[in-house]
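Minimal example, chain plus adenosine-5'-triphosphate.
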Amino acid sequence: MQGPTILVVDDEPLIRWSLTERLTAEGYRVLEAGTAAEALAKSEEHVDLVLLDYRLPDEDGITVLKRLKALDAEILVILLTADANVQTAVEAMKQGAYHYANKPFNLDEIALLVEKALETTRLRREVRSLRAIQAQPYGFDRIVGQSAPVLAMKALLRKVAASPASTVLLTGESGTGKDLAAKALHYNSARSSKPFMNITCSALPEALLESELFGHERGAFTGADRQKRGLFEAADGGTVFLDEIGEMVPGLQAKLLRFLEEKSFKRVGGAVDIRVDVRVVAATNRNLQEEVRQGRFREDLFYRLNVLPIPLPPLRARTDDLPLLVAFYVDVYNQEFKKHVNGVTQEAMGQLQRYGWPGNIRELRNAVERAMLLTDTDTLGVGDFATAGASVHLTDRVELPATGIDLEQLERSLVVQALERTNWNQTKAAALLGLNRDQIRYRIEKFQLERTPSTHTR
Ligand SMILES: Nc1ncnc2c1ncn2[C@@H]1O[C@H](COP(=O)(O)OP(=O)(O)OP(=O)(O)O)[C@@H](O)[C@H]1O
Ligand SMILES: [Mg+2]
C-alpha cells in the first residue's frame, strides 16, 4: 500500500513545485491543483490531506474547504493564507480545517504540520478500533462450551488464529456461532489492531457486491462519480469475513478465486493491480461439496477455501453443553432485565436436552430470553419454555393420515432421525425415543441400520 496522499492547491506554480518537491521527498504521494475546480476534481481520488491556498482564481478557500469536507468528513485540510487575517483563521477552523499557515511559509514548518496532522488521525483511528475491541469481547472464552466437540473446535480456532493462514472456511448450521468464531479468529490474531470487515454475500446484487469488495474507479459505471476503495483495500492488514459464501454468484466466485490465489486485484473499471494483505474468513451453512456437485459453486474455489475448514458442531451434537449455555444466558439476561433467576429446574433441563435445536445456539438464546422475560419465579420451569420444542411435543396424539401409514416405516424413520441427531450415540438416541439401549440396539439390527460416512463438508 502506498503512503498518504496529499493534494497541493495553489495557483502559483512555483509554490506548488516547492511543496511537491519537499513532500515527495518525505515519502508522500502528491497531487497538484491550480484552481478550486481542479482541486475538487482531484479529490475524487482518495486524498488524506489538502494544503489549500486561500486565494484561488475561481473561488475562495473557505468555500473549497466546505466542499471538500462535505465530500469526505475525514479529510485533513491545512489552509495557507497570505494575509494573517484572524477572521479568516477562525472561520477556517470553524469549517473543520485542521490548521492554517501564513504565507510566506517555511517548508520545514509545513512538513512538520503535515506529519502531525496525519499522526493525529492515525492515532484517532487506532483508539477507535481499540475501543471497539474492548466494547466487544471476542476472546475465545466468549465461545461457551466444555464438550469434546467444542474443545476441539476452540483448539483449532486458537491454532488457526495464531497461524499465518490466509484463508479459513467456517461451516456449520445457522446459529452455531460462525460470526462469533470469525471475530474470535480476528481479534486473537496478529491482525487484531487492523480492521475486521464483514459482508454478507447474499445481501447485495452482483454488481454492488463486486464494487463493495474490490472498489471502483470513477466512471466505472453510471453513478460511480467518485473513486471508492473496496473492503479488501480497507481491511489491508486485517480480516475480511465473507458470510454466506455459498450464495455468491458464479461471476464473483471467479474473481474471488483470482484474488485468493494472487493476493491482488483491480478495482472495477481499473487497470492497476492492487496488492493487499488480508485474511479471508468465509462462512456457509450450506454443504459446499453438495453445491459443487449441483454446479452452483466453483470446484476450484471450493478447494481453495477448503484448505482450512473449521466445522462448528450443531447444538444437538453437544447437549452436554446445555447446562453451561443456559447458565451463561441466564446470567446475561439477569443483568439485562435486572432479574434474579438462579437457573432451571431439572425437569426443564431434561426437556431442553431432549429437544433437537434446529436453530442451534441462537434458538437457545432466544428461548432463554423469552423465558426470562415472562417468568415470575426464580427458577425457570418446563412451563417457561413452553414454546421451545413445542414442535416435537406430541401432546395427545399424532394425526393418522387419511391414506393410512406404514408403521414399520414410521418407526424406522424415527430411529434413523434419533441416531443422526445424536451423532449415533445410542444412549442419547434411545433417550430421545423413550427407549433403553437394548431396545434401540434391537431396532438397529431389525432395520439393518448402518452408520453412513458423514456427508457433511469436512
Ligand atoms: N459457543 C457459543 N457460546 C456462546 N454464545 C454463542 C456460541 N455460539 C453462538 N453463540 C451465540 O449464538 C448466536 C448466533 O451465533 P452466530 O450469529 O455466530 O451464528 P451463525 O453461525 O453466524 O449463524 P447464521 O448462519 O444464521 O448466520 C449469537 O448470539 C452468538 O453470540
Ligand atoms: Mg452469521
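The CA atoms of residues 140 and 155 lie 9 Å apart. Residues 390-397 have pLDDT under 50 and may be disordered.
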